Structures are given as structure tokens and as C-alpha cells.
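Progress against Task 2.4 (sequence-to-structure conversion) is shown through the following example record, which the project officer requested during the mid-term review.
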Amino acid sequence: MEWLIAYVVPVLGAVLAGGLIGLEREYRGRPAGFRTHILVALTSSLLMLAAIHQLEWMGDVPGDVVRIDPTRMAHGILTGIGFLCGGVIFRHGLSVHGLTTAASLWITSALGTLYGVGFYGLAIGGTAVTLLVLGVLRWADQRIPQLRIVDVKVRYRRAEAMTEDEFRKLVAEFDLDAGAVSERLWSGENEDQARVEHRATLRGTGASNLARLAEHFRDDKRVVEYSLTPRKD
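C-alpha cells generated for the chain above:
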């Protein structure tokens, strides 16, 4: 029974915590999902168990020679998990994706460490709060008024292209601020293939404004190509 409490319970607790967090990430279609989070929590708990009970695997080494310091193992675990977290963060244009998944891997490693040392109260509480943040608070985050930043690129036929002032007025009609606007001319083999491109970073509140702007670009026969790329994942 003592062996069960000392070894099995910490491992099962870590696997359960990693599995629950991993299920949430798997459901969201994130790069690190169910199995990854379980392995992170399991590894952290096993390493901490090995650090705490190192007298059992040190063999005939005198006890007064062994210095048990589990905090060094914890520091090593959290340092190592940083490399794994860096692998799920990637940049697409000016947007950065994967930060929440990286943070979930980090907290999962910390929870596995807590289960490994037998700090069950803090570990269980941390698991519950983590699931609350990832699940329930996501609903609140989507409803908090926030400034939306979107990179826009629009190409017109050269003969029908808007001027910069006209482009700014168009964006302003949708309660969006264009900031700096860049213009580029794409030449073709003939005049009909020439294009004028406007690029800008739009700022404003409300997803409906961006949706209406996209609808305008779709309906505008002068627009040959356009893209709206949100900065936030």
C-alpha cells in the first residue's frame, strides 16, 4: 500500500491531468494534443519521483554522500520543456501562433512535477484552474471588447485603381483605421494585366466591420484579389 501511494498515485494523477488538458487542446485542433500533454506530465512526474527516491537507486553509495535536492531536477525539467514549447510557436506573416499551446505544455510540466513530489492539493487545484482558463475563459475572451488588428492587401486593375485617399475613406466607412498605406504597381505584358496593390494594417473593434469590408471587396468588380489576415490567433 505504501508503494502504491508513493509511486502509482503520483503517476496516475499526472497522466490524468495531462490527459484532461490535452483533450482540450486536441479538441481545438492545436499542434500539441492529447498524447503530447500526457507524455509531458508523465515525464515530469517520473523524473521528480526519481529525484526524491534517489537513495533507492544509488545502490551501495553511503547515505552521507548523497545530497537530495529535488529542486535541481525541477529546474532542469522546466528548462527542457522550453525547447518543446518553442517548437509549437510559429510565425505566419506578422502573426504569432501557438502561444497558448506552449503555455499549456509549460503548466502541464509544472503539474506533473507537483504530482511527482506528492503535492496533491496544489496539483489538483492547478489542474482545475488550468482547465477553467483554457475552456471556460475562452468563452469570455471571445466576448471581451478588444482592438482587432488585420493586415489587408487589395489589388485593383490599374485603370480602375483607388487612390490612397479613396482607400482610406473606404476603410473609414467601416469604422476602421488604415494607418500607413503602401502602394505598389504590378506591370504586366499589356495594360490590361497591370495591377495596383494597396497594403495597410487596419485597426478597429467588432468583427462585423471586417466582415462587411470583406463583403465589399467581394462585390467590387474592380478588385482582382484581396486578403484580410488577422494578427491574433
